[in-house]
Amino acid sequence: MNAPLLSAAEDVVWLRAGEALAASARREAGALAHRLGMSADRVARIELAATEAATNLLRHADDGSLILRVSRAADGAALEILALDTGPGIPDIDAALRDGHSGGGTLGIGLGAISRLSDDFDVHSLDGRGTLVLARFWAPAAAGDVGSRSARAAARHVAGLTRPISGETVCGDAWAARADLAETPGLSGERPPGRVTAMMCDGLGHGPLAARASERARQVFQNSTRTGLRDILQEIHLALRGTRGAAVCLVSADFAARRVEACGAGNVSAFVVDGQRRTALISLPGIVGSHLPSLRVFDAPLPPGATVVVHSDGLKDRWAPGDFPGLFTRQPIMIAGQILGQAGVRRDDAGIVVITTPAS
C-alpha cells in the first residue's frame, strides 16, 4: 500500500519592495535556512541569493515582493525564494542570465548569480507586466542526501502559495496536498505520484481567527485516513464547528485514469487548464463548519499535460490561460506565483494551489 506523500507550505514570509528589502531578505532567508538544518556554507549561499533577488527587485521593477517559502514533503524540505514583480518584464531571458548584461547600468550579475547558487532555478516573464524568479535550495534529508526523490517528485506536480491581506501578518487562506505514489517506478528509478489530492481553504474574513479555521482544516486534511473527497470534507466540517468557518474545495487528480474530481462548499474557484481552454469545476454554496450543503463530487477529464488550478476569492477569477504565454509548461510553483501576482487583490487574503499532470 502506498504511503501518502504530504506536501504543504508551513512557513511563508512576504517582503514588500522598499529600502530595507535586501537586509530583511538576507536576515529572514538565513533564519529559515538555519531552521531547516542547512550547513553554514549553504546558509551563506541562500543569504547571497536572497540579497541578489531583492536588489534586482529594487533596481528593475516598478513594484514587487520577495517571498521566502518552506515547502515540506514527507521525506524532504526545500527553501524557495520567489521574486515577484510588476514591471517591464525581461525581453531576453537568456541574455539577462549572462554576466555583464544589465538593463539598469549595473554589473548585471544578479540573475546569473542566483542561478548558479541555487539547486533549482526558473524565471518566467510577461512583457510589460512583470517577472517571477524562483531559486530553490533543498535541505538535507534524513539519509544525509540533499532533498529526496519523492520530495522532488512532489515539487514537480503540486505547489501552493498564500498571501495575507495588506496590513496583516497571518493569512486566513491555507492549502495542503498529498500524493499517493505510483506502483511502477519511472525511468529515473523514482516512483512518481499516481494521484494528487489537494485542499484550498479560505477562512471567513481575515486575520488570526480566519487563520485558525484554515489551519485546523489543513491539519484534518493531512491526518485524514479517508480517500473519498465527500468524506474528507465532512471531517473538516465537523472539525471547524466552533470556528468562524471557511470555504473549502478539495480536488483529486488521478494521473492514470486521466480524471479529476472536485468537491467543495463556498466561494473557492477550481479549473482544469488544457492549452488555451479553461474548464470550471463546480463548488456548491455553503460554509464549512456551519452550513454545509448536500455534498456532491463532480468530475471532469484530465488530458495529458493539463493543469488543475484552485484558488480563493482573493484572486480574480477572470484570468485566462492566454494571459500567461509559456507559463503552463512550468513547474507548479511558477504557475501559482504568476497567477497570484497578476490576479491577486490586496484587499483580501489570497491562496492558490496548482497540480500539474504528466504530458504522457
UniProtKB/TrEMBL annotation:
InterPro entries: HATPase_C_sf, HATPase_dom, PPM-type-like_dom_sf, PPM-type_phosphatase-like_dom, Ptase_RsbX. The keyword ATP-binding applies. It holds the Pfam family HATPase_c_2. SUPFAM superfamilies: ATPase domain of HSP90 chaperone/DNA topoisomerase II/histidine kinase, PP2C-like. One of its GO terms (molecular function) is ATP binding. Keywords: ATP-binding, Nucleotide-binding. Residues 177-357 form the PPM-type phosphatase domain. PANTHER family: PHOSPHOSERINE PHOSPHATASE RSBX. This is ATP-binding SpoIIE family protein phosphatase. It comes from Streptomyces cremeus.
